Amino acid sequence: MGQATRTTKLFLDLGSPEEGGANSGKRAYLEETARLLDAARAFYVTFFLAHPDKLEEKVSYFSQQLQEERERLISPNELLSWAESLTVETHAHPHPLPTYNFSERFPDFPFIYRRSVIKDAIGKVRSFLSNLATWRASGKKKGRPGLPGASNHPTLYDDAFSLDLDGADLHTCFARLKVYTGASWEWHNYPVKLSRYFEARWHDPAWEQQSPKLILRPKTAALHFSQVKTVEAKKVKASKEDPHLVTVAVDVNVKNLAVITVRQDGAIIETIFVSDHGLDRHRYGHLKRIARKQWQSGTPVKGEHSNQQLWEHVRRMNEDAAHQVSSRIADVCARYPGCVLLFERLRKIKTKGGSRSRRMNRRRANQLRGKINHYTRDKAYAGGTVTVEVNPHGTSQYCSRCGAKGERFSSRGGKRIKAKWGKLFGCLQCHYETNADFNASVNVHRSFYREWHWQPRTKPPPKAAKRGVGRRHVRSLQL
Ligand SMILES: [Zn+2]
Questions:
Q1: Which of 33, 65, 140, 411 is deepest in the core (most CB within 10 A)?
Q2: Per residue in 124-147, pLDDT tens?
Q3: Is there a contact between 256 and 438 (Cβ–Cβ < 8 Å)?
């Protein structure tokens, strides 16, 4: 059993008031709120850094299971009460520490926000202290972990936020937030950009809602809802014992973003090619333009970002493509319940050689492949499919039909040209000819089932073999 997580975003409508958006004052409140929360978090980060021993305090408790006194690390909730008793003025504790008087520094601070910043601060300081301890133990001189920062996106707990989506039409749907106006804390209504897509995800009973975070960007403001779902998935070892197991293999490439093959009982029962629809070419055009502009403008100004819109466009294209391809793959998995999804462990497509823009494009293509892998894993897991990474060795070099070594080639004007970049694969042994990416995708199944030469390594490879990748793996089949 495991947990799948996803984020569902709800954008606040901060457009011009005539068009139904909130006024600019309301936007300023959100920024004020985030700023004040950062200041409060900084206060508690300093406070906990000044009391590092307390964070490592051991608390003794009585274990019912073992029937004896035991020790454990102090919990965040206990730390929170302790910190509040020292810094916040109450009837029970009328005199907070003079140097850390939170009530004086931040009057009227809502307690729900205070608790969220204290919890954030505990997390930040704890991770800093553990990093510091690791660094000290390593004995290195460089790389001392930096002090924890205080900025974070505000988390909106129940008492600081409510969502009213039951209005008859879109104009009556609001998110109610407790915000700081610069002088006091007030409740304000923010219109939201509601969509059917959001509503479907929001009402989905399979996903449990968590408190949203307020994400402020230069031009937008959004609430990010984290949703979790408990997933019951079989262990791969158990799945592998099923003689009629369905495996879905994906070969991620550049032009064919994904070649999906489905195999059952030793036969390929479905194949889907997901093309990039010219994305690689299109991106290359943009990168060429960026490279030319950089060349024309000479040495870049330090600390200044150039071609921001173009980079943003390229980034967004990659992001969109990754989500689309991963959805396609997850859909295929959903059609075969209980299947296992197979990916190759990612190899790098070398960025060496070619023009500057070509290298930049290769790098982006690599990033895209990584993203597809990552997103697919998450989406498939939410549907109950487990992903396995298989040994990528030789998937593009060996014949998927007989297992012999073959060659990549391309056919131009009816002539067969042997080339590494060739779109086709030809077997020298059985003369099977097919699309090279399809061949690789079928071989991913072979690698999972350890067929032919895809055997686990029996002994560590000899040192000399490091130069030739092929020799690192034992070939069991005599050809
Ligand atoms: Zn063959």
A1: 33
A2: 898 898 888 888 888 888 888 888
A3: no
CA–CA separation, 268 and 272 (whole Å):
11
Question: Residue 248 — φ and ψ, nearest 5°?
Answer: -115, 115
Tokens of 440: 């690789």
pLDDT digits (tens, 9 = 90+) for 333-354: 989 888 889 988 876 666 667 7
Separation CA 461–CA 43 (nearest Å): 55
* Residue among 336, 232, 320, 242 at smallest CA distance from 282: 320
Cα 398 to ligand 1 centre (Å): 8
Q: Distance, CA 397 to ligand 1 centroid (Å)?
A: 11
Residues whose beta carbons lie less than 5 angstroms from ion ligand 1? 399, 401-402, 404, 427, 429-430, 432
Task: Tell me the angle at which helices 76-87 and 111-138 cross, rounded to the nearest 10 degrees.
Answer: 110
Q: Which residues of 371-396 are buried (b: 16+ CB within 10 A; e: fewer)?
A: bbbebbbebbbbbbbbbbbbbbbbbb
Tell me if the pTM is above 0.85. Answer: no
Return d(Cα 439, Cα 435) in angstroms, integer. Answer: 6
Give tens-digit pLDDT for 183-205. 888 888 888 888 788 888 888 88
Which residue ranges in the chain fall short of pLDDT 50? 463-479
With a CB cutoff of 8 Å and minimum separation 6, the contacts of 145 are: 128, 131, 132, 135
Q: Dihedral sign for Cα 168, 169, 171, 174, please.
A: positive
Burial of 173 (0-12, 13-18, 19+ CB in 10 A): buried
What is the CA(74)–ligand 1 centre distance, in A? Answer: 63
Q: For residue 382, is it left (φ>0), alpha (ψ between -120 and 50) or beta?
A: alpha
